[in-house]
Every structure is written in structure tokens, then in C-alpha cells.
From TrEMBL:
Cross-referenced InterPro entries: 4CMD/NDH-1_regulator, AhpD-like, CMD-like, Decarb_PcaC
Gene that produces this protein: pcaC
Molecular function GO labels: 4-carboxymuconolactone decarboxylase activity; peroxiredoxin activity
Carboxymuconolactone decarboxylase-like domain sequence ranges: 35-116
Name of the protein described by the UniProt record: 4-carboxymuconolactone decarboxylase
UniProt KW keywords: Lyase
Family matches, as Pfam families: CMD (PF02627)
Native source organism of the sequence: Ruegeria sp. PrR005
């Protein structure tokens, strides 16, 4: 694998945690290896690895973009990542309030619902 892939795996583990990455890696098949490599090199090895902004800021941007575009499936994963990125509940609320104004209240409302559920689960763990 490439240096960008190796760095991407390190960043992915730092942000998402070893348990999550280990489960994702175990679920990887021959069919999706090229896609998983693309994500690891592109998202984690390039974008998340950049030192241009902090993990906290990147976490807030990611959550806002996921909500604004209606990609709700990944919101719980990235809410869980806030425990490692330093984005607070208040940060997440602020990000979703921006979504409400600039992308629509229904999307922000759904994102907040998922965030509340995920935070509740995290407190129970």
C-alpha cells in the first residue's frame, strides 16, 4: 500500500477508534477493496490528514455537510468521533443550526435527532 494509505489508516484510527476501524476492515471484501482504498487515501490520508484546520473544526464541517446533503447514515459515526476530535455538543449544535438556516430545517432536525440518540448511547456505554 501507499504512504498515503498508511497515513490514512493512522488518521482513521485516531478519529474513529481502533474498534470501529477493526470492524470495518473485517467487513471489507474483494469487491469493495478499491473503494475502501480510495476512501482511506482520499478522505483520511489527504483531507483528514491535512494540518490546515483542526480535527475539531473538520469534525464540525463533516457533520454539517453530512446533514446538509441528507447523508444521515454517517452522522452517528461522526458524532462518536467527536469524543476524539474535541468537537463539543455545543459545537455540533452550532453546526446543525447553520444547516437549518443554509440547507433546511428538516435536515438539521433529523441530524439533531440522530445526534441526541447517539450521545445517549455513548453515555450508556
Amino acid at each position: 500500500m501507499s504512504d498515503r494509505y498508511d497515513n490514512g489508516m493512522k488518521v482513521r484510527r485516531r478519529v474513529l477508534g481502533d474498534a470501529y476501524v477493526d470492524r470495518a476492515e473485517a467487513a471489507k471484501t474483494e469487491f469493495d477493496v478499491p473503494f475502501q482504498t480510495l476512501i482511506t487515501e482520499g478522505a483520511w490520508g489527504t483531507v483528514w490528514a491535512s494540518d490546515g484546520i483542526s480535527d475539531r473544526e473538520r469534525s464540525m464541517l463533516t457533520l454539517a455537510l453530512l446533514a446538509a446533503l441528507g447523508n444521515f447514515e454517517e452522522i452517528p459515526m461522526h458524532i462518536r468521533a467527536t469524543a476524539r476530535t474535541g468537537a463539543s455538543k455545543q459545537d455540533v449544535l452550532e453546526a446543525f443550526q447553520h444547516v437549518a438556516i443554509y440547507a433546511g430545517v428538516p435536515r438539521a432536525n433529523q441530524a439533531l435527532k440522530l445526534a441526541k440518540q447517539t450521545y445517549a448511547e455513548m453515555e450508556q456505554e
